[in-house]
Design goal:
heterodimer; A: about 550 residues; alpha+beta; Alpha-Beta Plaits; two-stranded antiparallel ribbon; about 35% helix; globular; B: about 240 residues; mainly alpha; Fumarate Reductase Cytochrome B subunit; 9 helices; binds iron/sulfur cluster
Chain lengths: ~550, ~240
C-alpha cells in the first residue's frame, strides 16, 4: 500500500443554475491575460450540447485519454511515445481555434469618437487573434440553455450514442448544466503525453500542474487530455491549465470557482488513495467496471492500518484528520451519490458529480402529479430512460444501474425530508427503499442541503514548517503585462517571471476571516494594493496614527 | 582578410552561440519554446512543417557526415569517391528539396495568414532571412557546384571540411576556406551568422528535442519540497534559508 493524498472536488449538479459566475471569477483570477482570451479553466456547459471545445468528448476524433491495447495494457489513445515524437512537428489532433472560438473585443472607441451623424454608431466586433473585423459565429457558450440546439445538439457525441431513441423536440427535451474544471486525474494522460515531462502531479496533494519553465510548446498535452482542459497560450507558446488554485489551497482557502459559486454546490476535500492500485484499476477491462474500480482505489481514512501507512508515507496527522472529515469521501464512498465524469477515458478523474434529478422532477411536475412523492419519482426514473441513459453516458460509461441508484437516493431524500419539513411523522420505509438508515439519510440531506462553508470545504493548509518551499513563493505566472517581466524581446512574457507573492494570499485570507472591513489590524505592515478592496486605506500605506491625533 | 573572415568571425559566432545559449537558458526559460502557431492555422502547417523539419534533420545529418568524417576514413572502409558523391548528392538533394519546399510553404503561410503574421517577431524575420539564404546557398552549391560543376570541380571534402575540422580543433587553417568557391564561402558565412543569432531566436527549441520521453515514466510526480523555487535564482543578496 502506498498512501497518497489527493485534493478533490464534487459538484452537485441539481443546484447549478448556470450563472457562469465560476467561469468569470476564474477567468479574472487566472486567464485575463493576452494569449489566454479563449482559455476557460472553468467552463459551464449546457447538456445536451456540444461542450467546449466543440465535441471534445468524441474520442474517436480527438484521441484523448487512454485505451487498452490487445494484451490489456494501458496505452495512450493518441499513440505511443515513438509515434508521438514522429508527429511532433505538427500535432494531428490539435483542435484549431475554430473548435474553441475566435475571441473578440469591440472597438468601443467609435461609440464616443464618432462624429455627429444620423445613425447611432455601433461598436463592431474585432478579432483578438487577427485584429480584423469579424463576424461572431460561435463562442464558449453558444448553445447555452439549448440555444440553437435544434441545429447543433444532434452533434453532441454523448447524445449520438443513444440517438436512435431521441427525437430532439423541444417539448420533450431536458437539460442541465455541467460546470467543468481540470479533473486532476490520478492517471493523467496530459502528463503522460508531454514529451518534455513538464506536466507533473504534486506528491502532496495530487494537483496537476504545468511547469512553465519546462514546457516547450509541443502541444501534445492538449490532444492527450480527453477533457480538453489543457489550453495553449498562443502568445507565450506554453500550455496552461487549471491549477486547482493551489496558492489558495495551500493556505486552506477553497478554489475561486468554489468560493464564488452562487449555488454553493461545490465541495472540496481530501481523498486518500493507494497509488499502487491506480494503474490496475485504470486497466479494468469492462468500461462499466471503471467506476467501481476507481472507488476501490480510495482508502478508508478511518481504517487504523491506512492511518498507520499514511503516517509512514509522511502524511501529517492533521491531513489524515481532514481526510476523515472530507465531504468528498462522504459523497463518494459513504453516501455513494457522486460519480466520476467519463470514467471510460481511464484517467481516473478526481472531480466528481452528483447527477441532477431535476430532469426527472421537471417531467413529473409538468404532468401535474406530485413531484415529491416517492412512488411518482421512482416510477419516473424508471420510465424516463432518455435523460437517465444520457447521464449514464456522462458518468458511468453508459451503465444505467449506478445512475439509477443515485437518482433514487436523491428522490428518496426529497420525499423523506418533505415529511419532516411538513411536521409529519418521518417514514423509515423511504430510506430503507434505497438501502439507507434514517440517520444516514438525514446526514446526507445535511451535507447536500445545508452544509456550511467549513463543512463544504475541508482543506488542510500546507505545512508551515515547509513554508519556505510552498510553490507560490516562486510561481511562474506570465503576468508580465502587469509589470515585472518587461522584457518582451523573445515574444510575449519572456524574461524573468514575476512571482505571485505568498503575502497576497495570506493577506487575503486574513482579511476574509477578520472582523474589520478594511483589513486585519497588526497583521503585517506591507502595502499590498492587489488585495485592497477600496475600503479604508490599505494597511501599511501610512504610519500608524499617534495617540494624540 | 582571410584570417578575419575564416578565423575571427567564426570564433566570435561560436562564442556567441555557446555563451548566448547559457545566458538565455538562465535568463529566459519561460521564453524557451517552439512558439507554435498551429492554433491559428493548421492546413498549411500540417504539410509544411513536417516537410521542413524532416528535411532539415536530413540536411543536418548530411552536414555532420560531410564535415566531420575525413575522406580517408570512408576510403579506408572501401567507399570510393564516386559512390560517396552519388550518395551524398542524392541524399542531399532529397533532404534539401524537402527543406526548401517546406520552408517556402511555411514562409508563405507566415506572410499570408493574418494571425500568424502578427505573431511574428522582428527576431523571427531576421532569423528567417538568414535561414532562408543559408538553405538557398546550400542548394545552389549542391546543384550548381556538385551536379553541373559550374565554376570548376571542387571537392569540399578536401577543402571546407578540412578547414572545419581544423576550426573545431582550434587550429584553424584559413587558407583552405579562402580557396573555396564563392558559393561555399557565402554559405559558410551566412551559416555562422545564423549560429550567432541562434540563441536569441525561437531556434533554441532545437535543443529541447524531447528524446528523454522515450525512456521516462509516463506520469511525473514532483514534490513541493524537492523542487527548486521556480526558475529564477534569488536576486543578489537574498539567500534562501534551509536550502
Ligand atoms: S483533466 Fe486535467 S489532469 Fe486529467 S488529463 Fe486533462 S488536464 Fe490532465
Ligand atoms: S457559479 Fe455555481 S451555480 Fe453558477 S454556473 Fe458555476 S457552478 Fe453553476
Amino acid at each position: 500500500m502506498r498512501v497518497m493524498a489527493q485534493m478533490a472536488m464534487v459538484m452537485n449538479l441539481d443546484k447549478c443554475i448556470g450563472c457562469h459566475t465560476c467561469s468569470v471569477t476564474c477567468k479574472q483570477a487566472w486567464t485575463n491575460r493576452s494569449g489566454t482570451e479563449y482559455i476557460w479553466f472553468n467552463n459551464v456547459e449546457t447538456r445536451p450540447g456540444l461542450g467546449y471545445p466543440r465535441t471534445y468528448e468524441d474520442q474517436d476524433k480527438w484521441k484523448g485519454g487512454w485505451e487498452l491495447n490487445k494484451s490489456g495494457r494501458m496505452k495512450l489513445k493518441g499513440g505511443g511515445r515513438f509515434k508521438s515524437l514522429v508527429t511532433i512537428f505538427s500535432n494531428p489532433k490539435l483542435p484549431s481555434i475554430d473548435e474553441y472560438y475566435e475571441p473578440w473585443t469591440y472597438d468601443y472607441a467609435t461609440l464616443t469618437d464618432a462624429p455627429a451623424q444620423e445613425h447611432t454608431p455601433v461598436a463592431r466586433p474585432k478579432s483578438l487573434i487577427s485584429g480584423k473585423n469579424m463576424k461572431i459565429s460561435w463562442s464558449a457558450n453558444w448553445d447555452d440553455d439549448l440555444g440553437g440546439s435544434t441545429e447543433t445538439a444532434h452533434r453532441d457525441p454523448m447524445l449520438a450514442k443513444i440517438a436512435d431513441k431521441v427525437k430532439f423536440e423541444f417539448e420533450q427535451t431536458f437539460m442541465f448544466y455541467l460546470p467543468r474544471i481540470c479533473e486532476h486525474c490520478l492517471n493523467p494522460s496530459c502528463a503522460a503525453s508531454c514529451p518534455s515531462g513538464a506536466i507533473y502531479k504534486r506528491e502532496e496533494d495530487g494537483i496537476v500542474l504545468v511547469d512553465q519553465d519546462k514546457c516547450r510548446g509541443w502541444r501534445k498535452c492538449v490532444s492527450g487530455c480527453p477533457y480538453k482542459k489543457i489550453y495553449f497560450n498562443h502568445r507565450t507558446g506554453k500550455a496552461e491549465k487549471c491549477t486547482f488554485c493551489f496558492p489558495r489551497i495551500e493556505v486552506g482557502l477553497p478554489t475561486v470557482c468554489a468560493e464564488t459559486c452562487v449555488g454553493r454546490l461545490r465541495y472540496i476535500g481530501l481523498m486518500l488513495y493507494d497509488a499502487d492500485k491506480v494503474l490496475e484499476a485504470a486497466s479494468t477491462e469492462d468500461e462499466h467496471g471503471l467506476y467501481e474500480a476507481q472507488r476501490d482505489v480510495f482508502l478508508d481514512p478511518f481504517d487504523p492500518e491506512v492511518m498507520r501507512e499514511a503516517e509512514k508515507a509522511g502524511i501529517a496527522r492533521d491531513w489524515i484528520d481532514a481526510a476523515q472529515r472530507s465531504p468528498i469521501y462522504a459523497l463518494i464512498n459513504t453516501f455513494r451519490v457522486a460519480l466520476p465524469l467519463h470514467p471510460e477515458y481511464r484517467t481516473m478523474p478526481m472531480v466528481w458529480y452528483i447527477p441532477p434529478l431535476s430532469p426527472v422532477v421537471d417531467v413529473v411536475q409538468e404532468t401535474g402529479e406530485d413531484a415529491e412523492d416517492k412512488g411518482n419519482l421512482f416510477a419516473a426514473i424508471d420510465a424516463l430512460r432518455i435523460p437517465v441513459e444520457y447521464l449514464a453516458e456522462l458518468f458511468t460509461a453508459g451503465d444505467v444501474a449506478p445512475v439509477d441508484a443515485v437518482l433514487k437516493k436523491l428522490a428518496a431524500m426529497r420525499c423523506y425530508m418533505r415529511d419532516i419539513n411538513m411536521g409529519r411523522e418521518s417514514d423509515p420505509s423511504i430510506p430503507a427503499a434505497v438501502g439507507m438508515s434514517e440517520e444516514e439519510m438525514y446526514d446526507m440531506y445535511r451535507l447536500l442541503a445545508i452544509a456550511k462553508y467549513d463543512e463544504r470545504y475541508v482543506i488542510p493548509s500546507a505545512h508551515t514548517e515547509q513554508a519556505h518551499s510552498l510553490e507560490e513563493l516562486g510561481t511562474e505566472c506570465a503576468v508580465s503585462e502587469y509589470g515585472g517581466g518587461q522584457h518582451d524581446l523573445f515574444g510575449e512574457g519572456s524574461g524573468t517571471p514575476t512571482p505571485i507573492a505568498v503575502e497576497n494570499f495570506e493577506m487575503l485570507q486574513n482579511r476574509q476571516t477578520a472582523d474589520t472591513l478594511a483589513g486585519p489590524e497588526n497583521k503585517g505592515a506591507r502595502v499590498n494594493l492587489l488585495n485592497w478592496d477600496g475600503k479604508g486605506s490599505p494597511p501599511g500605506l501610512f504610519p500608524p496614527k499617534g495617540p494624540d491625533s | 582578410m582571410s584570417t578575419f573572415l575564416w578565423v575571427v568571425v567564426p570564433y566570435i559566432c561560436l562564442t556567441v552561440f555557446v555563451v548566448g545559449h547559457a545566458w538565455r537558458y538562465r535568463y529566459d526559460k519561460f521564453g524557451w519554446t517552439t512558439r507554435s502557431s498551429q492554433l491559428y492555422e493548421r492546413t498549411l502547417l500540417r504539410i509544411g512543417s513536417p516537410l521542413f523539419h524532416f528535411g532539415m534533420l536530413g540536411v543536418v545529418g548530411g552536414h555532420v557526415i560531410g564535415l566531420l568524417v575525413p575522406r580517408s576514413w570512408t576510403a579506408a572502409v572501401g567507399i570510393d569517391d564516386h559512390v560517396y558523391h552519388v550518395v551524398a548528392v542524392g541524399g542531399g538533394l532529397v533532404a534539401g528539396i524537402m527543406a526548401t519546399v517546406g520552408m517556402v510553404i511555411l514562409i508563405y503561410r507566415r506572410r499570408t495568414v493574418g494571425p500568424v503574421f502578427s505573431a511574428t517577431t522582428p527576431m523571427d524575420k531576421v532569423m528567417y532571412l538568414f535561414l532562408g539564404v543559408a538553405i538557398l546557398l546550400g542548394m545552389w552549391n549542391t546543384i550548381a557546384g556538385s551536379i553541373f560543376t559550374l565554376g570548376g570541380e571542387y571537392n569540399y571534402r578536401e577543402g571546407v571540411s578540412v578547414w572545419y575540422r581544423s576550426f573545431l580543433a582550434f587550429q584553424p587553417d584559413a587558407g583552405l576556406m579562402a580557396d573555396a568557391p564563392l558559393g561555399f564561402q557565402l554559405h559558410a558565412l551566412v551559416a555562422f551568422g545564423l549560429f550567432a543569432l541562434w540563441p536569441f531566436t525561437r531556434l533554441v527549441h532545437v535543443f529541447s528535442a524531447p528524446v528523454g520521453y522515450l525512456t521516462r515514466p509516463y506520469i511525473v510526480y514532483r514534490s513541493r519540497d524537492e523542487q527548486e523555487l521556480g526558475s529564477h535564482t534569488p536576486r543578489r543578496g537574498w539567500d534562501r534559508i534551509n536550502k
